[in-house]
């Protein structure tokens, strides 16, 4: 059997297209090394190659074994943790609606479990599918995703005039939260673009333009406090790419000045927010109004009464522990794309959390407050919180695909 025939049969057994070429190259090199050994022992080149191919064994069986080794698996522990959090939140919502809304037991149980299941399946859909291909991760694809969702967020949400709101198709609160969801997306997608523009140490100017576009969009959506938080998040991701020498040595010399400029921009954002909301938003009123909503903190306040501070601290500690687990889990990743995407996702979650706290502190409307995993679905919210489960799915997908994504994706 010829070498190419053997490799073709092995390749047909590999289900992950991303690793076929890498496996083919490794097997060819192994066959050539073995053939060289036989040739040095006195065999002709043709006989040496045939003997080396024969030593490799049955191509179908070899391919099946390699496919089993390279078949990615989802992180079951992380999936179980998300499932437990969703189940706990669904149970709390059931008790809340039974006690406050006086709904029937069947309706409450079915509705809350259904929404929890939808969230989990939504996350699982993005975790299980194979998104990591060379075509998908071209920088242009990332840019189209970023631009499309950003434009939709500005047109149908935020503080601008909305035709859907005026037509009564949705509430201002839904539009405001929908706009704030974009805050989570910007760092994650920016992280993907940092990786996409790393080839041949070019694309730095384009990254700076996208950086500026993200900040302007964040400012239009969430005001100065949003820009304040997005600047260091983007700079941290950009610094990672520069430190890895993706853009050449000369870019490292700019880091100090860029961080100084980012500090000035962050301070400017704080001043803008203070000037805009100082006399219109009181932090006590914001917190009181937020706790009156059927979000998880408000649910805990109703159900636990005087033990509300303790219950909220326990709940926050669980969520914080989950995110710390995710941070430590990133250290296991070997692929630069997976690592920087996961850092961007966690950066987006952090920005969203700090932004929500800033809104409750009086630097923005309390309707903008939405905490990753802590906030739950309720009537009037719509489907905007699915963004977080979308990115949790991508996070799991990165872990699943970490070892099968080619190291260099052009």
Task: Provide an overview of this structure.
The two termini are 33 Å apart. Residues 153-170 have low confidence and may be disordered. This protein folds into 2 domains: 3-70, no CATH class; 76-401, no CATH class. It is an all-alpha fold and 410 residues long. The protein has helices spanning 3-12, 17-40, 45-55, 59-70, 76-101, 105-128, 139-156, 163-166, 172-196, 204-222, 224-243, 249-252, 255-277, 283-291, 296-304, 308-330, 336-363, 386-401. Helix 7 (139-156) packs antiparallel against helix 9 (172-196) and helix 9 runs antiparallel to helix 10 (204-222). Helices cover 74% and strands 0% of the residues.
Could you provide a short overview of the structure?
This protein has helices spanning 3-12, 17-40, 45-55, 59-70, 76-101, 105-128, 139-156, 163-166, 172-196, 204-222, 224-243, 249-252, 255-277, 283-291, 296-304, 308-330, 336-363, 386-401. It is mostly helical. The chain starts with a helix and ends in a 9-residue tail after the last helix.
